Amino acid sequence: MLLSEIARTSAQVAAEPGRKAKVNALAGALRSAEPEEAPVVVAYLSGELPQRQIGVGYAALRDLPPAASEPSLTVAEVHAAFGEIGAVSGPGSVARRRELLHAVFARATRAEQEFLVRLLSGDLRQGALDGVMTDAVATAAGAPLAEVRRAVMLRGALGPVAA
User: Fold this and answer.
1) Which domain holds residue 61?
2) Are 134 and 143 in contact (CB under 8 A)?
3) Where is the DNA ligase ATP-dependent N-terminal domain (predicted)?
4) Which pTM was predicted?
């Protein structure tokens, strides 16, 4: 799944005032995701990183490379890159994280860059809280909401249930 689909869905959800429209937009994105991508898509559209923290702060997000003209970046590539960035430690780690981050951002379109900056800075405010996302997972799967809620309770997280 291309990251551009996630960025577009995020913008659509942010622009929608109604809960049902948000749920339908999110469910559409979840239906497009491969099962192995679903936990990452749920996390990103909920404004969270599966890795929690990757050691990237506001300073690293200030000086970004020019945006790509065409979308080519996939959710899986971004997830893998963020995992690699988060694993960097030791002497020279700040420079290495910045280098890896710039490689991701150089492949991202303007809309994708804006989405990633908001995601990494914890500023992805679009109204897709847990309740809305749970409804979207149920809608995408065609499953009763009560069953999805129970599965989330038993699994402890929504991402694995979405897969």
Assistant:
1) 3-162
2) no
3) 65-138
4) 0.89
Give the integer Cα–Cα distance in Å for 26 and 13: 7
| CATH code at position 51 | 1.10.3260.10
Encoded amino acid at 87, one letter = A
- Radius of gyration in angstroms for the set of CA atoms belonging to the chain, rounded to a whole number: 16
pLDDT in tens, 78-110: 999 999 999 999 999 999 999 999 999 999 999
How confident is the model at residue 124, as a pLDDT?
A: 82
Residue 74, beta-bridge partner list: 2
At 57 the pLDDT is 83
Residue type, 84: E
Distance of CA 11 to the CA centre of its chain: 12
pLDDT given at position 159: 84
Decide: 2 and 121 in contact? Cβ < 8 Å.
Answer: no
Helices (H), the chain: 3-15, 19-32, 38-45, 58-62, 75-87, 93-106, 110-120, 130-141, 145-155, 158-162
Number of structural domains in the chain: 1
> Which amino acid would we find at residue 128?
A
